[in-house]
Amino acid sequence: MSDTIRRTGSCLCGGVHFVVSGQPSRIGLCHCKDCRKAGGSVYSAFAIWPRAAFETSGVVATYGTRSFCPTCGSRVAWVTDDEAEVMLGSLDVAPTDLAPEYELWISRRETWLHALPGTEQFEHDRPQAQDADLPPPRPLSDAIPRN
Ligand SMILES: [Zn+2]
Ligand SMILES: [Zn+2]
């Protein structure tokens, strides 16, 4: 397993540490209300790993599936039975070598932010793969802010 990349992360105060192994399943940006409120910033940048690739140590508090450090308040992960969503800013090395592939809730994107070139643009949440009837992602050319 020595050839498997391992990335470490932590909260601001260092009370919570985590490790993610291997490459993430996907990397995105989200402008939704929950991400804005939870992080206090105008969007969140995250990467998602299979749950089994995520290990954490230290005490975390949770709100729903979101976990955060009870001492310093840093968001550390959003963990479900299948996946762990890690905030890119909580990883220890900056800049990371991880680049977003898609953007969610672009209708809530600040007007001074531009669509990230080369990413899929979604009006709301990312359609689930099994929902074949959902419309395709909006082409990037339609997503450029008009000004
Ligand atoms: Zn902390
Ligand atoms: Zn969101």
TrEMBL record:
It comes from the Bacteria. Keywords: Lyase, Metal-binding, Zinc. SUPFAM superfamilies: Mss4-like. Residues 7-103 form the CENP-V/GFA domain. Belongs to the Gfa family. PANTHER family: CENP-V_GFA DOMAIN-CONTAINING PROTEIN-RELATED (PTHR33337:SF40), GFA DOMAIN-CONTAINING PROTEIN (PTHR33337). This is GFA family protein. The lineage of its organism: Bacteria, Pseudomonadati, Pseudomonadota, Alphaproteobacteria, Hyphomicrobiales.
